[in-house]
From TrEMBL:
Keywords: Membrane, Transmembrane, Transmembrane helix. It comes from Streptomyces afghaniensis 772. One of its GO terms (molecular function) is transmembrane transporter activity. This is Major facilitator superfamily (MFS) profile domain-containing protein. InterPro entries: MFS (IPR011701), MFS_trans_sf (IPR036259).
Length: 399
């Protein structure tokens, strides 16, 4: 099929399939950990507010630690930094599992989940490898970025389903345990594929990505978009639970990711230049009203699932556009740090969205909770429009 030709060319590059396989294995748990933690904690402690607060704390800690980890990766290489950082994160996940299993005090849950903050940005490291392999090939890099976003969505499509199944079919801690094993195994495979690893520069540019022109507005948009994702996840889990269908929650979340995955692949195969960010965020804002309306007017889980599928179709184009702009604005030699700053913004937003979504569900209703992602998307739209009138229209940046 002609639509697949850019991807055939992409994976024809030497070593591309090998490092991608390891990265996908390590990335899959990213869609498992938060769902596993919410199901595990809410199921044993009986509080979605506590579960949302714990996951929010872990994500907030990651938002602080991740840029430092990425900076070390840029300075010393992926293999030397990512694997030890992963080991620390895995130990944090196992500590959380034991604290829940042994009915330890609530504060231990926060401390354990915060220890997972050293988890490397697997998607950012993969994108850095593509940027190294495809230096000077803007069209190929756009296809690679679109694939990476589709891979993100695939992991967030399969991850919640796998997590919900493991926690329901075996024991509440099973999702966290399997996720920790996959993360470590995948990172070992990825970091040992040294042929495609970007070389370490003898001198790292002094200019920090955070100070690069156009980056602060992009990171603000990432923060707001993260709140969309975090609140949607917690609210959907609670909505399904309220209807007595907790085991179906993972599948419902997977549909949203499936819509995004399909849109991401089409967006990359089309080979078009990145669209304006404001248009993508506007589409996301409009489509996110569908789950809210489905929940408020029908209270039907299948209809909410269908609405999330449609709403998800705006996610990948928005994220591909955002990550393309981040790459363009990041100083050469600090790409891991620049990409991680974008992910940090997303994680910070997810933390806020998770906490706010959990509070809304606990004190109001799951239906009311679907208003949170709509509001967060509207904020992202306002920020992108404000940025479009300033640095987003920088004539030095190709669109």
């Amino acid at each position: 099929m002609p639509q697949l030709t850019p991807y055939r060319r992409l994976f024809g590059l030497p070593g591309a399939r090998a490092f991608t396989a390891g990265n996908l294995i390590a990335r899959l748990p990213m869609g498992m950990f938060s769902v596993s933690a919410v199901v595990m904690i809410a199921g044993t402690r009986g509080s979605y507010a506590l579960a949302g607060a714990v996951t929010a704390t872990g994500l907030a800690a990651t938002a602080v630690v991740a840029p430092w980890t990425a900076r070390l990766v840029d300075r010393h290489g992926q293999a030397k930094v990512a694997l030890p950082a992963t080991v620390i994160a895995v130990l944090g996940s196992l500590a959380l599992l034991l604290c829940v299993r042994c009915d330890a005090p609530d504060w231990t849950l926060f401390a354990s989940y915060a220890a997972t903050a050293t988890t490397p940005n697997t998607g950012g490291m993969s994108r850095a490898r593509w940027a190294h392999l495809l230096a000077g090939d803007a069209k190929g890099l756009h296809t690679a970025n679109s694939f990476e976003q589709a891979a993100d969505e695939l992991c967030f499509m399969l991850g919640p389903v796998l997590a919900a199944f493991l926690c329901g079919a075996f024991f509440p801690e099973a999702g966290t345990l399997v996720g920790a094993v996959l993360l470590l195994a995948g990172m070992v495979w990825f970091t040992t594929r040294r042929a495609t690893e970007p070389p370490v520069r003898a001198r790292i540019p002094a200019k920090a990505p955070l100070r690069a022109p156009g980056m602060p507005p992009l990171l603000a948009v990432c923060l707001a978009m993260g709140a969309v994702f975090g609140s949607t996840e917690v609210v959907t889990l609670a909505f399904a639970d309220a209807l007595g269908h907790r085991s179906a929650a993972g599948a419902v979340l997977a549909l949203q990711a499936a819509g995004s995955c399909a849109a991401g692949l089409l967006y990359g195969a089309a080979g078009r230049a990145a669209a304006r960010l404001a248009w993508c965020v506007a589409a996301m804002t409009a489509l996110l009203t569908l789950p809210l309306l489905a929940a408020a007017l029908t209270g039907s889980l299948p209809l909410v699932a269908g609405a999330l599928l449609i709403a998800g179709m705006s996610t990948a184009p928005t994220m591909v556009t955002t990550m393309t702009l981040v790459q363009q604005r990041t100083p050469e030699g600090r790409l891991n740090e620049g990409m991680t700053l974008a992910v940090t913004g997303l994680l910070g937003g997810i933390a806020c969205g998770s906490a706010l979504g959990g509070w809304t569900v606990q004190h109001m209703s799951a239906t009311a909770g679907y208003g949170i992602p709509v509001t967060a998307a509207a904020v992202a739209l306002a920020l992108s429009l404000a940025g479009a009138s300033n640095r987003f229209t920088d004539q030095r940046t190709p669109h």
